[in-house]
Amino acid sequence: MTTTETRSVLLRTAIPGPRSQELLARREAAVAAGLGRATPIAVAEAHGAIVTDVDGNRLLDFVSGIGTLAVGHCPPEVSAAIQAQAERMIHFSALVGTYEPYVALCERLNGAVPISGPCKTLLANSGAEAVENAIKIARAATGRPAILVFEGAYHGRTLLTLTLTSRTFFKKRFGPFAPEVYRAPFPYAYRMGVSEEQATEQCWAAFERMLVAGVDPDTIAAVLIEPVQGEGGFIPVPAEFMRRLRGFCDRNGSLLIADEVQSGFGRTGTLFAIEQTGVEPDLIVSAKSLAAGMPLAATIGRATAMDAAHYGGVGGTYGGNPLACVAALATLDIIERDQLPTRARAIGAQIRARLAPLLDAEGPGPLVGDIRGLGAMLALEFVTDRNSRTPAPAQSVLDILSRALQHGLIVMRAGLYANCIRLLVPLVISDEQLDEGLEILIDAIRG
Ligand SMILES: Cc1ncc(COP(=O)(O)O)c(C=O)c1O
Protein backbone atom coordinates (compact mmCIF):
# COMPACT_ATOMS: atom_id res chain seq x y z
CA MET A 1 0.00 0.00 0.00
CA THR A 2 1.26 3.47 -0.81
CA THR A 3 0.84 6.38 1.55
CA THR A 4 0.24 9.97 0.47
CA GLU A 5 3.93 10.81 1.00
CA THR A 6 5.22 7.91 -1.05
CA ARG A 7 2.75 8.18 -3.90
CA SER A 8 4.20 8.72 -7.34
CA VAL A 9 1.05 10.29 -8.74
CA LEU A 10 0.60 13.96 -7.97
CA LEU A 11 -2.25 15.82 -9.64
CA ARG A 12 -2.36 19.62 -9.63
CA THR A 13 -5.05 20.09 -12.30
CA ALA A 14 -7.76 18.07 -13.96
CA ILE A 15 -6.42 15.95 -16.84
CA PRO A 16 -5.83 17.38 -19.39
CA GLY A 17 -4.75 20.58 -17.66
CA PRO A 18 -4.91 24.01 -19.32
CA ARG A 19 -1.40 23.86 -20.79
CA SER A 20 -2.00 20.38 -22.15
CA GLN A 21 -5.19 21.66 -23.75
CA GLU A 22 -3.34 24.56 -25.33
CA LEU A 23 -0.74 22.26 -26.85
CA LEU A 24 -3.45 19.86 -27.93
CA ALA A 25 -5.19 22.68 -29.81
CA ARG A 26 -1.88 23.53 -31.54
CA ARG A 27 -1.42 19.85 -32.42
CA GLU A 28 -4.88 19.69 -33.92
CA ALA A 29 -4.18 22.76 -36.05
CA ALA A 30 -0.68 21.75 -37.16
CA VAL A 31 -0.47 17.96 -37.25
CA ALA A 32 -2.12 15.58 -39.73
CA ALA A 33 -5.40 14.34 -38.27
CA GLY A 34 -4.72 10.68 -39.11
CA LEU A 35 -2.08 10.46 -36.37
CA GLY A 36 -3.97 8.82 -33.52
CA ARG A 37 -3.30 9.54 -29.86
CA ALA A 38 -4.30 7.42 -26.90
CA THR A 39 -4.49 10.26 -24.35
CA PRO A 40 -5.03 14.03 -24.28
CA ILE A 41 -1.98 14.73 -22.09
CA ALA A 42 1.02 16.77 -23.21
CA VAL A 43 4.24 15.64 -21.55
CA ALA A 44 7.20 17.72 -20.45
CA GLU A 45 9.56 15.11 -19.01
CA ALA A 46 9.75 11.53 -17.90
CA HIS A 47 12.00 9.44 -15.66
CA GLY A 48 11.70 5.78 -14.77
CA ALA A 49 7.98 5.01 -14.58
CA ILE A 50 6.88 8.60 -13.95
CA VAL A 51 5.79 11.15 -16.53
CA THR A 52 5.34 14.85 -15.76
CA ASP A 53 2.95 16.73 -17.98
CA VAL A 54 3.17 20.38 -19.02
CA ASP A 55 0.80 21.34 -16.18
CA GLY A 56 3.10 19.83 -13.57
CA ASN A 57 0.99 16.73 -12.97
CA ARG A 58 2.92 13.57 -12.17
CA LEU A 59 1.48 10.40 -13.70
CA LEU A 60 2.42 6.73 -13.72
CA ASP A 61 3.21 5.32 -17.14
CA PHE A 62 1.88 1.80 -17.83
CA VAL A 63 2.42 2.19 -21.59
CA SER A 64 6.19 2.81 -21.80
CA GLY A 65 6.09 4.35 -25.26
CA ILE A 66 4.07 1.31 -26.42
CA GLY A 67 6.53 -1.17 -24.96
CA THR A 68 9.65 0.75 -25.86
CA LEU A 69 10.95 1.55 -22.40
CA ALA A 70 11.76 -1.73 -20.63
CA VAL A 71 14.58 0.22 -18.95
CA GLY A 72 12.25 3.11 -18.09
CA HIS A 73 12.31 6.72 -19.22
CA CYS A 74 15.72 8.39 -19.52
CA PRO A 75 18.00 5.86 -17.81
CA PRO A 76 21.11 7.93 -16.93
CA GLU A 77 23.48 5.43 -18.60
CA VAL A 78 21.58 5.69 -21.89
CA SER A 79 21.33 9.50 -21.75
CA ALA A 80 25.07 9.70 -21.02
CA ALA A 81 25.93 7.38 -23.91
CA ILE A 82 23.80 9.44 -26.31
CA GLN A 83 25.34 12.70 -25.07
CA ALA A 84 28.91 11.43 -25.38
CA GLN A 85 28.25 10.09 -28.88
CA ALA A 86 26.49 13.33 -29.91
CA GLU A 87 29.66 15.25 -29.11
CA ARG A 88 31.75 12.95 -31.32
CA MET A 89 29.48 12.17 -34.28
CA ILE A 90 25.72 12.35 -34.68
CA HIS A 91 25.42 10.77 -38.08
CA PHE A 92 27.47 9.31 -40.86
CA SER A 93 25.30 6.61 -42.54
CA ALA A 94 26.26 2.96 -42.65
CA LEU A 95 25.67 3.21 -46.41
CA VAL A 96 28.65 5.56 -46.58
CA GLY A 97 31.10 3.95 -44.18
CA THR A 98 31.64 2.04 -40.97
CA TYR A 99 31.53 3.13 -37.33
CA GLU A 100 32.17 0.94 -34.34
CA PRO A 101 28.81 1.22 -32.47
CA TYR A 102 26.92 -0.21 -35.49
CA VAL A 103 29.23 -3.22 -35.75
CA ALA A 104 29.43 -3.72 -31.98
CA LEU A 105 25.64 -3.76 -31.70
CA CYS A 106 25.25 -6.26 -34.54
CA GLU A 107 27.88 -8.51 -32.91
CA ARG A 108 26.02 -8.32 -29.63
CA LEU A 109 22.62 -9.04 -31.16
CA ASN A 110 24.03 -11.97 -33.16
CA GLY A 111 25.13 -13.52 -29.88
CA ALA A 112 21.90 -12.73 -28.04
CA VAL A 113 19.25 -14.29 -30.29
CA PRO A 114 18.03 -17.85 -29.70
CA ILE A 115 19.29 -19.05 -33.07
CA SER A 116 22.11 -21.59 -33.25
CA GLY A 117 24.85 -21.16 -35.82
CA PRO A 118 26.31 -17.95 -37.19
CA CYS A 119 23.98 -14.97 -37.30
CA LYS A 120 24.08 -11.55 -38.93
CA THR A 121 22.11 -8.36 -38.34
CA LEU A 122 20.76 -5.44 -40.34
CA LEU A 123 19.70 -2.26 -38.52
CA ALA A 124 16.83 0.03 -39.47
CA ASN A 125 14.73 2.86 -38.00
CA SER A 126 11.40 1.29 -37.10
CA GLY A 127 9.74 -2.02 -36.48
CA ALA A 128 7.89 -1.80 -39.79
CA GLU A 129 11.09 -1.18 -41.71
CA ALA A 130 12.77 -4.16 -40.04
CA VAL A 131 9.77 -6.38 -40.90
CA GLU A 132 10.04 -5.23 -44.53
CA ASN A 133 13.74 -6.12 -44.49
CA ALA A 134 12.92 -9.58 -43.13
CA ILE A 135 10.43 -10.15 -45.96
CA LYS A 136 12.87 -8.96 -48.63
CA ILE A 137 15.60 -11.18 -47.18
CA ALA A 138 13.26 -14.21 -46.97
CA ARG A 139 12.23 -13.73 -50.59
CA ALA A 140 15.83 -13.37 -51.73
CA ALA A 141 16.91 -16.41 -49.68
CA THR A 142 14.16 -18.70 -50.97
CA GLY A 143 13.43 -17.28 -54.40
CA ARG A 144 9.73 -17.45 -53.49
CA PRO A 145 7.12 -14.67 -53.18
CA ALA A 146 4.46 -15.69 -50.67
CA ILE A 147 4.27 -14.68 -47.00
CA LEU A 148 1.98 -16.39 -44.53
CA VAL A 149 0.64 -14.27 -41.67
CA PHE A 150 -2.11 -14.56 -39.08
CA GLU A 151 -5.43 -13.09 -38.10
CA GLY A 152 -4.95 -10.45 -35.42
CA ALA A 153 -1.35 -9.79 -36.46
CA TYR A 154 0.19 -6.34 -36.32
CA HIS A 155 3.40 -5.77 -38.24
CA GLY A 156 3.31 -2.02 -38.95
CA ARG A 157 1.74 0.65 -41.13
CA THR A 158 3.96 1.01 -44.19
CA LEU A 159 2.12 -0.38 -47.19
CA LEU A 160 3.73 -3.84 -47.15
CA THR A 161 3.50 -4.16 -43.38
CA LEU A 162 -0.05 -2.79 -43.41
CA THR A 163 -0.85 -5.63 -45.81
CA LEU A 164 0.67 -8.03 -43.27
CA THR A 165 -1.31 -6.37 -40.45
CA SER A 166 -4.73 -7.88 -39.88
CA ARG A 167 -7.14 -5.39 -38.34
CA THR A 168 -9.21 -3.74 -41.06
CA PHE A 169 -9.55 -0.56 -38.99
CA PHE A 170 -5.92 0.29 -39.83
CA LYS A 171 -6.42 -0.34 -43.54
CA LYS A 172 -9.44 1.77 -44.43
CA ARG A 173 -9.04 3.47 -47.85
CA PHE A 174 -5.28 2.71 -48.07
CA GLY A 175 -5.43 -0.10 -50.63
CA PRO A 176 -4.58 -1.65 -52.96
CA PHE A 177 -2.33 -3.78 -50.81
CA ALA A 178 0.74 -5.84 -51.65
CA PRO A 179 0.21 -9.20 -53.36
CA GLU A 180 1.26 -12.65 -52.14
CA VAL A 181 0.24 -12.23 -48.50
CA TYR A 182 -1.95 -15.04 -47.10
CA ARG A 183 -3.67 -15.01 -43.72
CA ALA A 184 -4.28 -18.03 -41.50
CA PRO A 185 -6.43 -18.27 -38.35
CA PHE A 186 -4.54 -17.62 -35.10
CA PRO A 187 -5.02 -19.86 -32.05
CA TYR A 188 -6.85 -17.27 -29.95
CA ALA A 189 -8.23 -19.80 -27.47
CA TYR A 190 -10.27 -17.35 -25.37
CA ARG A 191 -12.21 -15.91 -28.29
CA MET A 192 -12.59 -19.32 -29.93
CA GLY A 193 -14.13 -20.49 -26.66
CA VAL A 194 -11.91 -23.58 -26.45
CA SER A 195 -8.79 -24.78 -24.64
CA GLU A 196 -5.33 -23.89 -25.93
CA GLU A 197 -4.88 -27.48 -27.14
CA GLN A 198 -8.17 -27.37 -29.07
CA ALA A 199 -7.30 -23.97 -30.53
CA THR A 200 -3.98 -25.38 -31.69
CA GLU A 201 -5.65 -28.39 -33.33
CA GLN A 202 -8.35 -26.30 -35.02
CA CYS A 203 -5.95 -23.67 -36.30
CA TRP A 204 -3.48 -26.28 -37.45
CA ALA A 205 -6.23 -27.98 -39.45
CA ALA A 206 -7.06 -24.59 -41.01
CA PHE A 207 -3.38 -24.01 -41.76
CA GLU A 208 -3.08 -27.35 -43.55
CA ARG A 209 -6.31 -26.67 -45.45
CA MET A 210 -4.85 -23.37 -46.61
CA LEU A 211 -1.93 -25.19 -48.17
CA VAL A 212 -4.40 -27.03 -50.37
CA ALA A 213 -7.10 -24.43 -50.87
CA GLY A 214 -5.34 -21.06 -50.42
CA VAL A 215 -1.68 -20.92 -51.33
CA ASP A 216 0.73 -23.32 -53.03
CA PRO A 217 3.31 -24.25 -50.35
CA ASP A 218 6.03 -24.27 -53.03
CA THR A 219 5.62 -20.49 -53.23
CA ILE A 220 5.86 -19.75 -49.47
CA ALA A 221 9.02 -17.80 -48.62
CA ALA A 222 8.21 -17.31 -44.94
CA VAL A 223 5.77 -17.71 -42.12
CA LEU A 224 5.72 -14.48 -40.10
CA ILE A 225 4.34 -14.61 -36.55
CA GLU A 226 4.43 -12.63 -33.29
CA PRO A 227 5.35 -15.10 -30.50
CA VAL A 228 3.01 -13.03 -28.34
CA GLN A 229 0.47 -11.23 -30.47
CA GLY A 230 0.70 -7.57 -29.43
CA GLU A 231 -1.85 -5.21 -30.93
CA GLY A 232 -4.10 -8.27 -31.37
CA GLY A 233 -4.51 -8.52 -27.60
CA PHE A 234 -1.40 -10.04 -25.98
CA ILE A 235 -2.02 -13.64 -26.94
CA PRO A 236 0.95 -16.00 -26.56
CA VAL A 237 1.32 -18.53 -29.38
CA PRO A 238 0.88 -22.03 -27.91
CA ALA A 239 4.27 -23.79 -27.93
CA GLU A 240 2.83 -26.74 -29.85
CA PHE A 241 1.52 -24.46 -32.62
CA MET A 242 4.96 -22.82 -32.91
CA ARG A 243 6.62 -26.28 -33.07
CA ARG A 244 4.29 -27.26 -35.90
CA LEU A 245 5.10 -24.07 -37.79
CA ARG A 246 8.80 -24.86 -37.34
CA GLY A 247 8.21 -28.37 -38.66
CA PHE A 248 6.31 -27.02 -41.67
CA CYS A 249 9.04 -24.49 -42.47
CA ASP A 250 11.74 -27.17 -42.21
CA ARG A 251 9.87 -29.57 -44.50
CA ASN A 252 8.83 -26.86 -46.92
CA GLY A 253 12.07 -24.86 -47.17
CA SER A 254 10.39 -21.70 -45.83
CA LEU A 255 11.77 -19.34 -43.20
CA LEU A 256 10.15 -18.88 -39.81
CA ILE A 257 10.24 -15.18 -38.87
CA ALA A 258 9.48 -14.14 -35.28
CA ASP A 259 8.23 -10.57 -34.99
CA GLU A 260 9.44 -9.66 -31.49
CA VAL A 261 9.09 -5.91 -31.95
CA GLN A 262 6.77 -5.62 -28.95
CA SER A 263 7.61 -8.84 -27.05
CA GLY A 264 11.41 -8.61 -27.21
CA PHE A 265 14.12 -7.51 -24.82
CA GLY A 266 13.02 -9.02 -21.57
CA ARG A 267 9.37 -8.03 -21.37
CA THR A 268 8.01 -11.58 -21.39
CA GLY A 269 10.48 -13.04 -18.89
CA THR A 270 13.13 -14.10 -21.40
CA LEU A 271 15.12 -11.87 -23.71
CA PHE A 272 12.92 -13.06 -26.60
CA ALA A 273 9.45 -14.55 -26.10
CA ILE A 274 10.01 -17.36 -28.60
CA GLU A 275 12.62 -18.86 -26.26
CA GLN A 276 9.72 -20.01 -24.08
CA THR A 277 8.35 -22.20 -26.87
CA GLY A 278 11.66 -24.01 -27.37
CA VAL A 279 11.51 -23.16 -31.08
CA GLU A 280 14.33 -21.51 -33.03
CA PRO A 281 13.20 -19.07 -35.69
CA ASP A 282 15.31 -18.31 -38.76
CA LEU A 283 14.93 -14.55 -38.44
CA ILE A 284 13.94 -12.29 -35.53
CA VAL A 285 12.63 -8.78 -35.99
CA SER A 286 13.11 -6.48 -33.05
CA ALA A 287 12.78 -2.79 -32.18
CA LYS A 288 11.04 -0.89 -29.34
CA SER A 289 12.83 -1.78 -26.07
CA LEU A 290 16.08 -2.41 -27.96
CA ALA A 291 17.15 1.21 -27.65
CA ALA A 292 15.18 2.83 -24.80
CA GLY A 293 13.16 5.03 -27.13
CA MET A 294 15.74 5.88 -29.77
CA PRO A 295 14.41 4.96 -33.22
CA LEU A 296 16.16 1.68 -33.91
CA ALA A 297 15.15 -1.73 -35.18
CA ALA A 298 17.00 -4.88 -36.11
CA THR A 299 16.50 -7.85 -38.38
CA ILE A 300 18.66 -10.63 -37.00
CA GLY A 301 19.03 -14.16 -38.32
CA ARG A 302 20.88 -17.04 -39.82
CA ALA A 303 23.85 -15.67 -41.73
CA THR A 304 23.01 -17.75 -44.81
CA ALA A 305 19.61 -16.08 -45.08
CA MET A 306 20.76 -12.62 -43.99
CA ASP A 307 23.44 -12.62 -46.69
CA ALA A 308 20.97 -13.53 -49.45
CA ALA A 309 19.97 -9.97 -50.41
CA HIS A 310 22.16 -8.60 -53.20
CA TYR A 311 24.84 -6.02 -52.40
CA GLY A 312 23.15 -2.61 -52.13
CA GLY A 313 19.66 -4.17 -51.92
CA VAL A 314 18.97 -3.26 -48.29
CA GLY A 315 19.66 -0.33 -45.97
CA GLY A 316 18.66 3.29 -45.61
CA THR A 317 20.13 6.69 -44.80
CA TYR A 318 19.57 6.60 -41.06
CA GLY A 319 19.31 2.88 -40.18
CA GLY A 320 21.66 2.16 -37.27
CA ASN A 321 22.39 5.80 -36.58
CA PRO A 322 25.31 6.11 -34.09
CA LEU A 323 23.17 7.72 -31.35
CA ALA A 324 20.65 4.89 -31.56
CA CYS A 325 23.40 2.24 -31.55
CA VAL A 326 25.12 3.54 -28.41
CA ALA A 327 21.71 3.86 -26.75
CA ALA A 328 21.03 0.21 -27.58
CA LEU A 329 24.40 -0.96 -26.25
CA ALA A 330 23.78 0.88 -22.97
CA THR A 331 20.22 -0.49 -22.86
CA LEU A 332 21.43 -4.07 -23.29
CA ASP A 333 23.93 -3.50 -20.45
CA ILE A 334 21.08 -2.43 -18.15
CA ILE A 335 18.84 -5.33 -19.17
CA GLU A 336 21.68 -7.74 -18.34
CA ARG A 337 22.93 -5.99 -15.19
CA ASP A 338 19.48 -5.61 -13.64
CA GLN A 339 18.26 -9.01 -14.87
CA LEU A 340 15.16 -7.41 -16.31
CA PRO A 341 13.75 -10.65 -17.79
CA THR A 342 13.64 -12.06 -14.25
CA ARG A 343 12.11 -8.83 -12.99
CA ALA A 344 9.48 -9.09 -15.75
CA ARG A 345 8.35 -12.43 -14.33
CA ALA A 346 8.00 -10.94 -10.84
CA ILE A 347 6.08 -7.96 -12.21
CA GLY A 348 3.80 -10.31 -14.15
CA ALA A 349 3.11 -12.35 -11.02
CA GLN A 350 2.33 -9.21 -8.99
CA ILE A 351 -0.05 -7.92 -11.66
CA ARG A 352 -1.85 -11.25 -11.99
CA ALA A 353 -2.25 -11.58 -8.22
CA ARG A 354 -3.73 -8.07 -7.90
CA LEU A 355 -6.04 -8.35 -10.90
CA ALA A 356 -7.23 -11.96 -10.50
CA PRO A 357 -10.29 -11.04 -8.35
CA LEU A 358 -11.59 -8.98 -11.29
CA LEU A 359 -12.26 -12.24 -13.15
CA ASP A 360 -15.18 -12.87 -10.79
CA ALA A 361 -16.25 -9.28 -10.15
CA GLU A 362 -19.61 -8.06 -11.44
CA GLY A 363 -20.36 -4.76 -13.32
CA PRO A 364 -21.71 -2.01 -13.55
CA GLY A 365 -19.22 -1.61 -16.45
CA PRO A 366 -17.77 -4.21 -18.81
CA LEU A 367 -16.58 -7.47 -17.23
CA VAL A 368 -13.04 -8.79 -17.22
CA GLY A 369 -13.30 -12.04 -19.16
CA ASP A 370 -9.64 -12.95 -19.48
CA ILE A 371 -6.25 -11.91 -18.12
CA ARG A 372 -3.43 -13.27 -20.24
CA GLY A 373 0.03 -12.77 -21.62
CA LEU A 374 3.58 -13.72 -20.80
CA GLY A 375 5.78 -12.25 -18.06
CA ALA A 376 5.08 -8.53 -17.83
CA MET A 377 3.32 -8.41 -21.21
CA LEU A 378 -0.21 -8.72 -19.89
CA ALA A 379 -3.66 -7.69 -21.05
CA LEU A 380 -7.20 -7.79 -19.76
CA GLU A 381 -9.98 -8.60 -22.19
CA PHE A 382 -13.39 -7.09 -21.50
CA VAL A 383 -16.70 -8.69 -22.39
CA THR A 384 -20.37 -7.93 -21.84
CA ASP A 385 -21.13 -11.50 -20.76
CA ARG A 386 -18.67 -14.13 -19.52
CA ASN A 387 -20.57 -17.02 -21.11
CA SER A 388 -20.96 -15.67 -24.63
CA ARG A 389 -17.64 -13.79 -24.37
CA THR A 390 -19.17 -11.01 -26.45
CA PRO A 391 -16.53 -8.27 -26.81
CA ALA A 392 -17.30 -5.23 -24.68
CA PRO A 393 -18.02 -2.09 -26.74
CA ALA A 394 -14.78 -0.23 -27.50
CA GLN A 395 -16.21 2.92 -25.88
CA SER A 396 -16.71 1.17 -22.53
CA VAL A 397 -12.99 0.31 -22.48
CA LEU A 398 -12.09 3.87 -23.48
CA ASP A 399 -14.17 5.05 -20.52
CA ILE A 400 -12.06 2.93 -18.16
CA LEU A 401 -8.85 4.34 -19.67
CA SER A 402 -10.18 7.85 -19.28
CA ARG A 403 -11.09 7.28 -15.60
CA ALA A 404 -7.62 5.84 -14.97
CA LEU A 405 -6.01 8.88 -16.60
CA GLN A 406 -8.11 11.23 -14.49
CA HIS A 407 -6.46 9.58 -11.49
CA GLY A 408 -2.96 9.72 -12.88
CA LEU A 409 -2.43 6.41 -14.69
CA ILE A 410 -1.53 6.20 -18.38
CA VAL A 411 -2.81 2.96 -19.94
CA MET A 412 -3.67 1.96 -23.49
CA ARG A 413 -5.97 -0.49 -25.18
CA ALA A 414 -5.35 -3.31 -27.65
CA GLY A 415 -7.22 -6.14 -29.31
CA LEU A 416 -8.87 -6.95 -32.61
CA TYR A 417 -12.11 -5.62 -31.10
CA ALA A 418 -10.34 -2.81 -29.18
CA ASN A 419 -11.77 -4.41 -26.03
CA CYS A 420 -8.50 -5.14 -24.20
CA ILE A 421 -6.30 -3.07 -21.92
CA ARG A 422 -2.61 -3.79 -22.33
CA LEU A 423 -0.11 -3.34 -19.55
CA LEU A 424 3.43 -2.49 -20.61
CA VAL A 425 5.00 -1.12 -17.46
CA PRO A 426 8.65 -0.12 -17.46
CA LEU A 427 10.53 -3.12 -16.04
CA VAL A 428 12.39 -0.78 -13.68
CA ILE A 429 9.16 0.14 -11.90
CA SER A 430 9.19 -0.37 -8.12
CA ASP A 431 6.76 -2.72 -6.39
CA GLU A 432 5.15 0.32 -4.71
CA GLN A 433 4.67 2.16 -8.00
CA LEU A 434 3.23 -0.95 -9.60
CA ASP A 435 0.82 -1.39 -6.72
CA GLU A 436 -0.21 2.26 -6.85
CA GLY A 437 -0.92 2.08 -10.58
CA LEU A 438 -2.85 -1.18 -10.26
CA GLU A 439 -5.00 0.33 -7.53
CA ILE A 440 -5.92 3.18 -9.88
CA LEU A 441 -6.64 0.73 -12.67
CA ILE A 442 -8.84 -1.49 -10.48
CA ASP A 443 -10.83 1.55 -9.28
CA ALA A 444 -11.25 2.70 -12.89
CA ILE A 445 -12.51 -0.74 -13.93
CA ARG A 446 -14.95 -0.84 -11.02
CA GLY A 447 -16.27 2.50 -12.28
C1 LIG B 1 4.70 -6.81 -33.33
C2 LIG B 1 4.95 -5.50 -34.00
N1 LIG B 1 5.54 -5.48 -35.20
C3 LIG B 1 5.81 -4.32 -35.83
C4 LIG B 1 5.45 -3.11 -35.29
C5 LIG B 1 5.74 -1.84 -36.02
O1 LIG B 1 6.75 -1.14 -35.38
P1 LIG B 1 6.93 0.44 -35.65
O2 LIG B 1 5.75 1.11 -35.07
O3 LIG B 1 8.22 0.77 -34.98
O4 LIG B 1 7.01 0.59 -37.14
C6 LIG B 1 4.83 -3.08 -34.03
C7 LIG B 1 4.42 -1.81 -33.42
O5 LIG B 1 3.68 -1.73 -32.48
C8 LIG B 1 4.57 -4.30 -33.37
O6 LIG B 1 3.97 -4.34 -32.17
- Outline type: globular
| Structural Rg | 22 Å
Strand order of the largest sheet: 4-12-11-10-7-5-6
Number of helices: 14
Please write the CATH class name of the largest domain. Alpha Beta
Number of structural units classed as domains: 2
Largest β sheet strand count, sense and barrel closure:
7 strands, mixed
What's the helical proportion of residues?
A: 25-40%
Overall number of strands: 18
CATH architectural category of the largest domain: 3-Layer(aba) Sandwich
Structural class by SSE content? alpha/beta
Reconstruct the topology from this structure.
Blueprint: H1 18-30, E1 43-47, E2 50-53, E3 58-61, H2 64-67, H3 76-88, H4 100-112, E4 119-124, H5 127-142, E5 146-150, H6 159-164, E6 181-184, H7 189-192, H8 196-213, E7 220-225, E8 228-229, E9 235-236, H9 239-252, E10 255-259, E11 283-286, E12 297-302, H10 303-306, H11 322-337, H12 340-355, E13 367-374, E14 377-385, E15 390-391, H13 394-406, E16 409-410, E17 412-414, E18 420-423, H14 431-446
Parallel strand pairs: 3-16, 5-6, 5-7, 7-10, 10-11
Antiparallel strand pairs: 1-2, 2-3, 4-12, 8-9, 11-12, 13-14, 14-15, 14-18, 17-18
Helix pairs in contact: 3-11, 4-11, 12-14, 13-14
